[in-house]
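Archive transcription. Copying these from loose printouts into the bound notebook so they stop getting lost. Printout 1 of 2:
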Amino acid sequence: MKFVDKINCCAIAIAIVLSSCGGRESRSGDEFDKAYFVFVHDDTNEYLEYYYEPFRKHDVPFSAATIPSNINDTHLKTLRDIVDHGGEVLAHYMGSPQHDSPDSLWLACTRDVKRDLQAYGFNPKGIIRADNTEPSTEKGEEYCRKYFLYANDKMGLSAQYDLPRTLMLRFKDRDEFISQIECDKKVKGIHAYGFHGGRDDEKWVTAELFDSLITDLKQSEGCEIVTYEYLYER
C-alpha cells in the first residue's frame, strides 16, 4: 500500500470515492485490506491530554497536528508519549497562505514549522492543512514537496498531498457521526477525522465518545486505528 505521486506520472492506484451513506469523501481501493481509521487532534491545545487519554488506555495510535508555539512542558511530555506508543506528531501551523502569498509565508507554514518540531525532537513526515489555506495550489505542492512526504485535504496538487480527512465539526451531533462510522466500517480504505476541543460546534466530541468508539472499532472485524505514517510506510 502506498500513496501515489501523479506529478511523476505514476498510475493512480488509490481511487477517491464517495461513501454510500452521507456522501463523505474517503479514499479506497483494491490494495486496501481493511477499513483504516485515523484520528487527528488539531493544534496541540489544552485539550490534548484529555483526548489522548482514551487512546492511551486502549493502546491505539493517536495523531497530533501540532503548532510548535503551542507546546508547553506538559504537551511535550504527552507528545513524546504519543510517539512512544505508535502515534504520530504531524506539522500544523497558524496562517492563511494563498496561491499569491509571498514565499516567506509559505516557508513559515512549512519549513519553519518542521524545523521547530525537529528542535523538540520530532520528525514530522506529514503536514495538516489549516482550514483557511487556499487548497490545490502550485505553491502548496511546491512547499509540501520540499519538506513533507504527505499532507491532507488538497494541501497540494498530487495524490499524497490530498489525503482524506473530515472535520468532526461538520456533523451535527454524535448520532450522525456514529452513523457515518458504521458506513466507513464497511469500506476498505482510509477514513480520517480531525477535531479540536473547546468549540461550540464540537461539544459532543468527548473523551467518552472516543472510549466507546475505540472499543467498538477494536471489536469490529476488518477495522484498525492507525496513523498516516503507518499507511505511508506500508
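Printout 2 of 2:
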Amino acid sequence: MKKSEYKERMFELLSEDIDYLGFNEKMNFVSNIIIEFERKMKTHVIHQIKEKVGRMKN
C-alpha cells in the first residue's frame, strides 16, 4: 500500500464519530491507541531480536 493510500484510510477512520465522545475526548482516545500500538510494536521487535540472537548463538 502506498503511503498516500494509507494516510487517506487513516484520515477516513479518524474522521468517524465515536459514541459519546467529544472532540477532545476522541483525540485523547486516538492518542492512547497510538501509544498502545507503539508499545506492542516495540515488544514485538524486541522479541524478534531476542529470537534472532538466540539462533545466532546456537
